[in-house]
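Same chain as my last thread, 760 residues:
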Amino acid sequence: MSRAPGLRLDALLWGVVMLGCTLLLAGQWLGGAPVDTRITTLVPDSPATPLIERAEKHQSQAFESRILLLISGPESAEKLDALKRALRDSGSIATLSSDDLTRPDAALSPYRYRLLADSLAEKDADAWRQRGLSRLFTPGVDASLKKDPFGLLDAWLEARLDGPVTVEDGKPGVTQGGTRWQLISAELAGSPYAMDVQRKLTAALGDFEAAHPELDVLRAGLVFHAAAGARQGKREVTTIGLGSLLGIVLLLMAVFRRPGVLASLLLSVASGITFALPLTWWLFGTLNLLTLAFGASLIGIAVDYALHLQCARQLHPGRSLSRLWPGLTLGLVSSLAAYLLQLATPLPGLHQMATFAALGLLGAWLTTRLWLPLLPQRTHPATWPIAARLDRLRLPRRAAPWWSGLGLVGVVAVVLMATRLTPSDDLRALNPSSPALIDQQRQVQTLLERPGGQRYLIATADDAEMLLAKLERLDQSLTPLVEQHRLGGYRHLAQSVPPQVVQDKNLARVRDLYDQAVPELLDDAGLPAALADTLTSPLKSVPYLTPSTWLDSPAGQADAALWLSGATPTAALVLLEDADPEAISALQTLAAETPGLYYHDRVAAISAQFTRLREHISRWLALALVGLAIIFMIRYRRRAWRVLLPPVGAVVVTLGVFAAAGVGITLFHLLGLLLVLGIGLDAGIFSTEHPDDPAAWLAISLSCASSLLAFGLLAFSATPALHFLGTTCLTGLAASWLLVPFSRGAPARLPSTDASATSR
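reply #2:
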C-alpha cells in the first residue's frame, strides 16, 4: 500500500499527458494539418550526385503537375468541350495548355535562315525554284514572297513538330488504327498530392464518364496515381483497423466475458494511439496514410501488455503484480528495439511508421502500468476453464517424437533457405498503382510517342553552345540503336536548337541557294528582277536561335524538361524510350567513355538502393539476434534458449516457407521479420518468466491471436509493401505461437487456490 500514493500521482501525470495529446490531436484535425497520400515515401533517397538530384527535381517539376487525357468514341470532338468546361468548373485545373497550339511562326521568323530542314538542304536550286513557284500559285498556301518565298520556316517546323498529334477543326488529337483520340493537356491548380485537387479532378472526370459511358477515356499523370493511393490508403485504414478491432473485441469477449475487462484492454490501445498519433504528426509535420494503415495494426501489439496484466488478475486475483513488471518491461524494450531499428534506414516513410509504432507501444505500456492496476476487477468463471484447456498445450515429459519433428522442420527450412531463398529488389514489384491505371499511362505514352522519363542521359559542357554541339554529336551513337530497334527513340534540345556551327552552315547553304534560285523564281513568276535585293537583304544579318528563345516559344514549351537552366556546368537531358538490355549496355558504355555524359535509370537506381537497404537490414537483424542472445544469457542463463526459440524459430520457419514458395525476399519482408522477432520475444520472455502459470500462456495465446488478426489482415492489402509485411507476420506469428509449447517447461498441476479464487 505504500506505493499507492506514488502510483496515483504517476497516473495523474499520465492523465495530464493524455489530455494534452488529445487537445493537440483535436487542434491538428480541426486546423487541417497536412496529410500525405504518397505511397512513394517508402522509396529511398538514392545516393546521387548533385547533378542527378537536380535532374530528378527538374523532371518532377516538369511532369508532376501535368495531366494528359485522351477521349474517343461517338461525337468525341463535340463532347470534348463539355469535359473542358467540367475541368475548369471543378477548380482543379489552372490552364489547358492543349488549347494553345498556335504555331510559333512570328516568334521564330527572324531565325528561319539558320533553320534548314534536311528535306530542303538536300535539294538543288532548281528544286527550290519549283517549291517557290508552287507556294506562290497554289490555292490555300499562305506564302509570302518577301518574308519566306521558299517556306524555310514551314519546312523546319513541320520536321520539328512532326509527331502523332495533329489538329483537326481546331482540336488537337492523335489518330491510330482509324480511331481518333481527342487530346487534353492541362496543368493542375495545385500539388498532385493535395487531396482537395485530387477530389475535384476525379469527381469531374467521374461525372463525365458516368454521363458519357459510350466514350473511352485514357488518363496519365501523377495526380491519378496519388488519388488512387489516397483512396486505397483510406480504404485499408478502415478495413484493417476496424477488422482488427472487431476481431479482437470478439476474441476477448469470448475469453473474459466482462465488459469492464474489455474496456480496460481497449483503453490501453486507445491510449497508445492517442499518444502516438498527434506526436508523430507534430514531429514530422505531416501524416502519411500509409502510417495510419500500418499503425492500425498496432492494435494487435498494444493490447499485449494489458492482456498479461488482466490475465494475471483474472486467474490470480490475490497475487501481487510486482512479479509481472520485469517481463512486461523487457517485452517493451525488445519490441521498441525491433521497431526503432527501422530508424536506421534512410526511408522517411518507415521512419514515420516506426516512430508511430514505438510511441504507441510506449503509450499502451504506460497506461497498463499506471492506470489499469487502479481499476476495479471482477473475474468471470468461464475464463479459468479456457486457460486450463490452453495450458494443456505443452509438450509432455517424454516428447522425443515432437522434438524430432521440430528438428526435421528446422533442417528442411535451413536447407531451403540456403538453396532456394532469393532476394527481390525490383521497384516495379512495389508499385501500388492498379494494373488498369498503369496500362492507361502506357497507352497514353504510346499514342503520343512520349518517353516515360525513367531513363535518360545527362550531358554537361562549359556553355550552352558546347552543350548543343555535344548533344548533336550523340546522334551518331543513338540513331543506329533506334534503326536497329534496340532503342525506341530519344529526344534532346539540339534536335530543335541546332548548334551555332550548324546554324552557320545552314545560313551559308541558304545564301548560296538564294543567289541561284531567287533570280529564276522572279523570272518564272513574271516579277521584277529588282525584288532580288529585297528578298536577299534579310540574309545579311541573321540572329542565332538560342535555347532560351526556343523554350520561351509556344512550341518549345514541351521541351522544357530537356534543359537544366541555371545549372553549373551547363546541363541538358536526353530522354530515352524503351531500351533492350543490349541498348542499355551500349548507353552505359557511351556514358563511361564520353566526358561530361552520365547515364541514369531511375528505376534501376532505386532498385539498387533497395538492395543495399535489404542487406543493411539483414545485418541489423543478425546483430539484433546476437545482442539479444547475449542479454538473455546473462539474465536467464541456461534457460536463454527458451526465450529465443519462439522468435528465432519463427524467423527460420518463415524464410523456409518463402523459399519453398519461391517468394523473393524484399526489404519489407525483412521489416516484417523484425516485427515477428519483437512479438515472438514477448512470448518467449513470458513463457520463460512464468513457465507454470496458465495466465501467462493465456496471455501469450491471446497476444499471438490478436497480432495475427492485426498483421494478418495486412496480407490482404493492395499496397505491395504492406502486403509483404502482412504475409511475413502472418506466417511468422503463427510459427512463433506454435513454438511456445516447445519452450515451456514440463506440465505442472494447476494451483487449487487460484482455481477457487476465481469463484469469488
